[in-house]
Amino acid sequence: MLKAGDKAPAIALEDQDGRRRTLKDFAGRKVLVYFYPKADTPGCTQQSCLLRDLKGEIGRTAIVGISPDTPARQKKFDDKYGLGFPLLADTEHVVARAYKVWKKKSMYGREYMGIERSAFLVGADGRLLHAWYKISPKDTPTRLLEALGK
């Protein structure tokens, strides 16, 4: 698992508008990178909307969401809830694997691979300031504000 002080794994994925996004796009700023299992599901919607609602409290800190959804599905999710930050499509799970959040999961006795809801605060220098694995949707904004001293 990644921890504070580690170099943040590279990100190069397409966002909901078809633009290729990388961590370098946010150079000189802190970035909250959060991974969610599936766009427009109850937990993911709660998490994303709570983050949207605190954008005015976090200064220049950027927010970036990542899930295995396609760019079209990410666009629909963004349009429906007016999220207003990049939602990246990790359809091949490359970035999820690099961040160690692509895991074996189980539901009703069935095992499958999926995203473990997690969040990472990347410093302006590209190193992780915080790594929160298995974070709940409602704890994501709280942890971010605490980490930023808000």
Quick summary of this structure?
This protein is an alpha+beta fold and 150 residues long.
First and last CA, distance? 27 Å
- What structural class do helix, strand and pairing data support? alpha+beta
Helicity level: 10-25%
- From the alpha-carbon coordinates, what is the Rg to the nearest angstrom? 14 Å
Most strands sheet:
7 strands, mixed
Mean pLDDT: 96
Low-confidence runs: none
Q: State which percent range the strand residues make up.
A: 25-35%
Shape: globular
Helix count?
4
For the biggest β-sheet, the strand order reads 2-1-5-4-3-8-9
Order of helices and strands: EEEHEHEHEEEEH
How many strand units? 9
Report on this structure.
By secondary structure, the protein is α+β, with helices and mostly antiparallel strands. The protein is 25% helix and 29% strand. The chain is built from 4 helices and 9 strands; from the N terminus they run E-E-E-H-E-H-E-H-E-E-E-E-H. The protein has helices at 42-53, 71-81, 94-98, 139-147; strands spanning 12-15, 20-22, 31-35, 62-67, 87-89, 102-107, 110-115, 118-122, 128-132. Strand 8 and strand 9 form a beta hairpin. The protein is globular.
Topology readout:
Elements: E1 12-15, E2 20-22, E3 31-35, H1 42-53, E4 62-67, H2 71-81, E5 87-89, H3 94-98, E6 102-107, E7 110-115, E8 118-122, E9 128-132, H4 139-147
Parallel strand pairs: 3-4, 4-5
Antiparallel strand pairs: 1-2, 1-5, 3-8, 6-7, 8-9
Structural key phrases:
two-stranded antiparallel ribbon; alpha+beta; 150 residues; single chain; 7-stranded mixed β-sheet; 9 strands
